[in-house]
Design brief:
- The protein is mainly alpha-helical.
- The protein has 8 helices and no strands.
- The chain has helices spanning 2-22, 26-38, 41-54, 57-83, 89-92, 111-126, 131-147, 153-174.
- Helix 3 runs parallel beside helix 6 (111-126), helix 4 packs antiparallel against helix 6 and helix 6 (111-126) packs across helix 8.
- The longest helix is centred in the middle third of the chain and has 27 residues, at 57-83.
């Protein structure tokens, strides 16, 4: 698996460095810091639980679906990080700009991106009119993880797929999709 990660890193290092080094602006740092928090466990679980408890009808169902999806999606995230650990970009590419408190656990897949898409997908399914608002938020969480030097683009792409597919599976199991 290490050889696969080296090959993948060579393929996407230029894209990673472009986002990480050339996009570095104060306004983007503030925006991406906020978006990164949106993918954190505290935010995703709290918002999901609040919606499940307080929102009426389909919105409450979407909240419960998101809560289950966020929690369930982190089982494969933890397994992947243990079974096939991948170094974070800042650990491999010395020129990487990193944000405060860099993470030290393996980078593949992105847990923040997984959580963001597990959170947002039920609401996009419940109301497709929200897709133009929610999809860019999820993509922004993914970009923030690259911007801060914590993930390669493929880490975040895997998180998008994992979070979305877990939420859709939970929705099918709950009869909401």
């Amino acid at each position: 698996m290490a050889q696969f990660y080296r090959m993948l890193s060579r393929f996407e290092s230029d894209w990673f460095l472009h986002i990480n080094l050339r996009w570095n602006r104060e306004a983007l740092t503030l925006l991406f810091r906020l978006l990164s928090l949106t993918g954190g466990a505290t935010f995703t679980l709290s918002i999901s639980l609040a919606a499940g408890l307080l929102a009426p009808g389909a919105w409450g169902t979407a909240g419960w679906q998101a809560l289950i999806a966020v929690a369930a999606s982190h089982i494969p995230v933890m397994l992947a990080k243990r079974v096939s650990p991948r170094s974070r970009p800042y650990q491999v590419l010395p020129q990487t700009k990193i944000g405060p408190s860099p993470l030290r656990d393996p980078s593949f897949p992105s847990g923040h991106t997984t959580a963001a898409f597990a959170l947002l997908t039920p609401w996009m399914v419940a109301s497709p009119a929200l897709i133009p608002v929610l999809l860019p938020i999820g993509a922004g969480v993914a970009l923030s993880r690259v911007y801060f030097g914590l993930h390669y683009p493929s880490d975040t792409a895997a998180g998008m797929l994992l979070g979305s597919s877990t939420a859709l599976l939970v929705g099918v199991m709950m009869g909401a999709v």
